Amino acid sequence: NAGVTQTPKFRVLKTGQSMTLLCAQDMNHEYMYWYRQDPGMGLRLIHYSVGEGTTAKGEVPDGYNVSRLKKQNFLLGLESAAPSQTSVYFCASSLRPPGTGKGEKLFFGSGTQLSVL
Amino acid sequence: LAKTTQPISMDSYEGQEVNITCSHNNIATNDYITWYQQFPSQGPRFIIQGYKTKVTNEVASLFIPADRKSSTLSLPRVSLSDTAVYYCLVGGGNQGGKLIFGQGTELSVKP
Asked: Smallest Cβ distance to A48: which of B42, B90, B98?
């Protein structure tokens, strides 16, 4: 049982390039999230999904797009990377709405370190 | 969304008990309080969750007063390996699943 797997773990892009980060979970979770974490800072929500085929904006959605075509996968895309998008990106998932009791919690991946030059 | 406020940083020594308090004045009736721990270069991991009074597991205790406007994470007899950032989160279900982290508390445990 792998849990939440993020691909790739590291990536260096040039300004203007595009790329897609993949998050895969094998726990049949409905809820999936993308966060970014800048050095010395907390996590900021980019986009999230409450089920297959759904996406919603978080706190900092600009410059990113997401898709949830399959329940187990949540893709984060950068169409034209900018240096301000240099960050560590974390994906997380939850079976039910996290924070609603019954021990519902987020499971996080190990992160993707992205540098945009 | 219920906003949370925590101290930015705390220092402690090995063997001491550490209490980290989180304020959440506008917590909703259905909201639970959840704490996560994050080590450097890792994703956060769940520590404990509660709704009211006291919850205890093998890692920590969570104290929630009757008005639920704050909560306190208690780590007994900390060790160097407890050095991490601790996040308090409130709710998520009432906001359609939108879950926003606060700034967290950076705990530094010294020998």
From this structure: B98
Whole-angstrom distance, CA of residue A93 vs CA of residue A30: 7
**What is the distance in angstroms between the Cα of B99 and the nearest Cα belonging to chain A?**
7
**Position B47, amino acid:** I
Two tokens, residue B78: 């900390």
What is the full DSSP assignment across B21-32? EEE-TT--TT--
Query: Which two three-digit tokens encode residue A116?
Result: 């945009």
Q: Torsions phi, psi of B81, nearest 5? A: -75, -5
pLDDT digits (tens, 9 = 90+) for A28-40: 999 999 999 998 8
pLDDT in tens, B88-102: 998 765 566 788 888
Half-sphere exposure at residue B8, Cβ-oriented, CA atoms within 13 angstroms:
2
Beta strands B45-50 and A107-108: pairing type? unpaired
Do the beta carbons of residue B22 and residue B88 sit within 8 Å?
yes
How distant, in Å, are the alpha carbons of A34, B42, B45 from that of A58? 9, 21, 20
CB A11 within 8 A of CB A113: yes
How far, in Å, CA of B34 to CA of B20, rounded?
A: 13
Interchain CB distance below 8 Å, A101 and B51: yes
Q: Exposure of A102 by Cβ count < 10 A (0-12 exposed, 13-18 middle, 19+ buried)?
A: exposed
